[in-house]
């Protein structure tokens, strides 16, 4: 499904992030952008994979031509990719130097701001482009949790968390493209991101009750600091050799991070005895990643044949230390090699367009602890992933039937054997024995003018759930927060969107429903989590006199269940923005207000095995007011055509 942005109200939405939040079939559920019924998408800008989420915030909506949402990506994409969003920017006009500058000021509970400067120089077949970006951001979150643990005694831990952080971030990029002739072009881009300052502050108050009698209480003050440096180099070549169109992409990433945390705790027991302790932890993480992807395309048998291969290698090392010896020091290392080959064929058969594909993936995963390879945690996988799509027009209505086999490999942090210290009642660790998640998806899509609908079914095996278990039999009140694979379950999804244009008013209504069939072990027996989850989204855009544009959006989510979590209360939020451009569009102002009534709060129950449940209440960092001022002059857009390689491994980093 393609949404036109150029010459529409979306062109003044602000950034690419703002456009995607208002694109039919895409929602921001508070945990990032999601494609309805498919989950988190991979995003491409002019064929180049978006590797850093800040890139979407750095692309102005006025430079976007259209947005395409693909719910069945096909064999040429990694089997972990459930959906793809392709952003096409407007074609540049003329030559010479151009720039686009942006200043944004925002306020949540404290003020933050950013500065951005894009430039581009175009001359003949040569194109040079770059970006400079700086931000000073503030984040906060309030969280309450009640953990009930049922062992020989009934333990209840009620905690209240107040967390905030401040981060300075610097980004710079420089790239070039060169068009040799009509059949050959190449380019290279270097991007570096540095986080020179990051400070985290968290206060946790906890009351512990044993068999309905007060046991102890504590106050925990945590102070953390971190630094991060990332370098990324991308190279592409596009050409024609004989009757084949050839695409090559190469990527390399070097990343390092350092973090330190100091926790000061004060505990008071039932006899009013007070004890204190300090816990300090430090970690150093280092990534090295390399990938290459080659694709060949040519007309054959009355259709189009695509053949390709991809390779990726990653080396990740994490050194974790606890000075007081409360937790074990660990040196974790992951070495992973991935190789894949794919074939895809599409052809028009009368009115029907058919596409079939097959993808083979090989994954060699090696896990080391303190320089010793763990054979039980190291694995080799061989997987085949078929896919198919049928497009059938009937009059002005289009039907799409699709099938895809998919995989989601665990994040590297989820596979870690290290145990991190949160407070004296909560430790956090990974699970090196996690298996990949396998999914079979079938979907039906229907579109007619400004109406679209989707119906989908998924069978999910070995899904990864957050879980919490007693850290040890000797210390049952200490919870180890980790992940585990769940039993297979089924899920059904349906949605409908209406987006007409009525004079100066451009509304868009979306209703979606998710229903799963799941049974889990819980204290007291088996619990069924199969209540549907309903979401309503209403976006409005009004072209007002004086060339002002007003946008208002409302999102509502019902109670219901997703994975091993039960949402106990409805949630809703309202956003609004006002846009005005002057000087023939060169200077623009955008005033935005997100979560105006501060209602984006979550109340849920997490089921975590036979002995534990966790009731949670989250108040996220969602209410914000901001003003963006943008000035552009002859801002030519880059011709960069790289599509990226090794995207699944990069996302797991």
TrEMBL record:
Residues 254-631 form the Outer membrane protein beta-barrel domain. Gene3D superfamilies: TonB-dependent receptor, beta-barrel domain. Keywords: Cell outer membrane, Membrane. One of its GO terms (cellular component) is cell outer membrane. Pfam families: OMP_b-brl_3 (PF14905). The keyword Membrane applies. This is Outer membrane beta-barrel protein. It is found in: Cell outer membrane.
């Amino acid at each position: 499904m393609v949404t036109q942005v150029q010459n529409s109200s979306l062109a003044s939405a602000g950034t690419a992030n703002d456009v995607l939040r208002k694109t039919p079939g895409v929602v921001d559920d508070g945990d990032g952008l999601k494609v309805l019924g498919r989950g988190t998408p991979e995003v491409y800008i002019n064929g180049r994979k978006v590797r850093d989420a800040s890139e979407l915030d750095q692309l102005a909506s006025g430079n976007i031509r259209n947005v395409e949402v693909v719910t069945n990506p096909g064999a040429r994409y990694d089997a972990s990719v459930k959906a793809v969003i392709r952003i096409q920017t407007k074609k540049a006009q003329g030559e010479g130097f151009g720039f686009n500058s942006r200043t944004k000021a925002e306020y949540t509970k404290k003020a933050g701001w950013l500065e951005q400067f894009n430039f581009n120089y175009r001359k003949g077949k040569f194109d040079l482009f770059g970006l400079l970006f700086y931000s000073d951001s503030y984040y906060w979150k309030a969280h309450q949790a009640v953990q009930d643990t049922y062992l020989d005694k009934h333990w209840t831990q009620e905690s209240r968390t107040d967390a905030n952080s401040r981060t300075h971030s610097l980004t710079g990029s420089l790239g070039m493209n060169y068009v040799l002739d009509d059949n050959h072009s190449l380019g290279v881009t270097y991007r570096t991101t540095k986080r020179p300052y990051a400070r985290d502050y968290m206060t946790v108050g906890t009351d512990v009750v044993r068999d309905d009698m007060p046991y102890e209480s504590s106050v925990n003050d945590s102070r953390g600091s971190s630094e991060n440096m990332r370098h990324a180099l991308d190279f592409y070549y596009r050409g024609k050799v004989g009757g084949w169109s050839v695409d090559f992409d190469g990527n390399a990433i070097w990343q390092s991070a350092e973090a330190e945390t100091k926790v000061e705790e004060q505990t008071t027991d039932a006899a009013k005895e007070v004890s204190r302790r300090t816990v300090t932890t430090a970690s150093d993480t280092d990534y090295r990643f390399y990938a290459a992807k080659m694709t060949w395309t040519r007309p054959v048998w009355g259709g189009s044949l695509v053949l390709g291969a991809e390779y990726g290698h990653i080396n990740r090392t994490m050194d974790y230390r606890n000075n007081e010896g409360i937790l074990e020091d660990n040196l974790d290392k992951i070495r992973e090699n991935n190789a894949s080959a794919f074939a895809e064929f599409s052809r028009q058969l009368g009115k029907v367009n058919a596409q079939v594909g097959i993808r083979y993936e090989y994954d060699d995963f090696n896990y080391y602890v303190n320089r010793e390879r763990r054979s039980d945690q190291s694995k080799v996988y061989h997987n085949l992933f078929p896919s198919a799509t049928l497009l059938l027009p009937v009059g002005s209505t289009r039907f799409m039937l699709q099938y895809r086999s998919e995989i989601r490999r665990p994040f590297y942090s989820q596979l870690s054997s290290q145990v991190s210290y949160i407070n004296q009642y909560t430790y956090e660790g990974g699970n090196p024995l996690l298996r990949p998640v396998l999914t079979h998806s079938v979907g039906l899509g229907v579109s007619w003018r400004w109406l679209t609908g989707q119906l989908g079914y998924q069978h999910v095996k070995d899904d990864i759930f957050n879980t919490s278990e007693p850290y040890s039999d000797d210390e049952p009140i200490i919870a180890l927060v980790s992940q585990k694979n769940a039993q297979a379950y089924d899920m059904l999804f349906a949605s409908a969107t209406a987006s007409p244009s009525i004079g100066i008013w451009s509304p868009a209504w979306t209703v979606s429903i998710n229903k799963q069939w799941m049974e889990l072990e819980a204290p007291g027996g088996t619990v069924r989590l199969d209540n549907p989850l309903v979401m309503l989204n209403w976006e409005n855009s009004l072209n007002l006199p004086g060339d002002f544009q007003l946008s208002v959006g409302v999102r509502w989510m019902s109670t219901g269940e997703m994975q091993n979590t039960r949402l106990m209360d409805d949630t809703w939020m309202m956003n609004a923005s006002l846009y005005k451009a002057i000087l023939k569009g060169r200077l623009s102002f955008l005033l935005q207000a997100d979560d105006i009534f501060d209602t984006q709060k979550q109340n849920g129950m997490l089921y975590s095995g036979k002995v534990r449940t966790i009731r949670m209440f989250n108040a996220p960092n969602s209410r914000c007011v901001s003003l963006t001022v943008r000035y552009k002059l002859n801002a030519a857009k880059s011709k960069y055509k790289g599509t990226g390689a090794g995207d699944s491994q990069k996302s797991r980093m």
